[in-house]
Design a protein that fits this description.
- It is built from twelve helices and no strands.
- It is mostly helical.
- Helix 4 crosses helix 6.
C-alpha cells in the first residue's frame, strides 16, 4: 500500500466518523489526505472504488470483533451474544456501517461473505447440539437479515427504533424461532409484535388466524378511558 493510498483511506475513515458517505466530497478527502484529486483515481479508479475499499476495512474490523466473541457450552446463547456485538458495532460506527451494508454500484464489499460464513458456523453448532429447527443456511440468512435490519432502522429512525427494547425483542424472536428456544415475552408492545411479524416474513411461517395483525393493532391502540359509573 502506497503512502498516498494509506492517507486517502485514513482520511475517508476519519470523515466517516461524523458524516455519511454521500455527504463526503472527494475534495474534502483530498484536502485531508494532502493529495491531489487525480490520486484518488490512480489508486481506486473513482470515488466508488475508494468507498468500497473503506467498506472492506470496516468489515475487517467487524469480523475481527466477531472472532473474539466467546464460545460457551450454550450455542444459542452464543448466537445472542453475536447479535448484540453486531448491534454494538453498528451503533459505534453508524456511517461506516451504512457504507458496509448498503453499498451502491457494482462493487460490493467481500467481507459480507465471511460474515455470513462465521454466522453459519455458529448456527451449525446449534444444529450439532440438536437445537435447530431449520437448515443452517436458512437460519443464518434469517438471523443476519434481521440483525442488519434492526441496525439500519435504529440508525435511520433513532426516535422510533433506537430504544433499548427493539433489538433484544427481535433477537429473541428470530433466534428463538429458528432454534426452538422461544420465550414467553410479557412485553407485548409494538417492538415485540413487529419482531414476530418479521420472523414470519423471514421464515415463511406466518402467525395463524391473523393473530399478529390483531396484536399489532391492539398494541398501537390508545388505552380506553375509564368508564363512568
Amino acid at each position: 500500500m502506497s503512502t498516498a493510498r494509506a492517507r486517502i483511506l485514513e482520511a475517508t475513515e476519519e470523515l466517516l466518523a461524523t458524516k455519511d458517505a454521500l455527504a463526503i466530497s472527494t475534495r474534502a478527502i483530498c484536502d485531508r489526505a494532502k493529495v491531489g484529486m487525480p490520486e484518488i483515481y490512480r489508486q481506486f479508479g473513482d470515488k466508488q472504488g475508494l468507498l468500497t475499499a473503506v467498506a472492506d476495512i470496516g468489515f475487517e474490523r467487524f469480523l475481527a470483533e466477531k472472532r473474539k466473541n466467546p464460545l460457551t457450552d450454550d450455542p444459542v446463547a452464543d448466537l445472542r451474544t453475536a447479535w448484540d456485538s453486531h448491534v454494538a458495532f453498528a451503533l459505534r460506527n453508524p456511517h461506516l456501517y451504512r457504507l458496509m451494508f448498503t453499498p451502491t454500484g457494482d462493487a460490493k464489499p467481500g467481507g459480507i461473505k465471511e460474515a455470513q460464513a462465521i454466522l453459519l458456523t455458529a448456527v451449525e453448532r446449534c444444529r450439532d447440539a440438536g437445537r435447530l429447527r431449520t437448515s443452517p443456511e436458512l437460519a443464518g440468512r434469517s438471523i443476519l437479515s434481521a440483525n442488519v435490519g434492526v441496525c439500519m432502522m435504529a440508525l435511520s429512525f433513532p426516535d422510533l427504533f433506537g430504544d433499548s427494547d427493539t433489538a433484544p425483542a427481535v433477537r429473541d424472536a428470530v433466534i428463538g424461532k429458528v432454534t426452538g428456544d422461544e420465550r414467553e415475552d410479557s412485553r407485548i408492545g409494538t417492538a415485540t409484535v413487529l419482531a414476530q411479524a418479521l420472523v414470519a416474513t423471514l421464515t415463511g411461517t406466518p402467525t395463524p388466524d391473523g393473530a399478529t395483525l390483531d396484536r399489532l393493532t391492539a398494541a398501537r391502540r390508545p388505552a380506553a378511558p375509564p368508564s363512568e359509573t
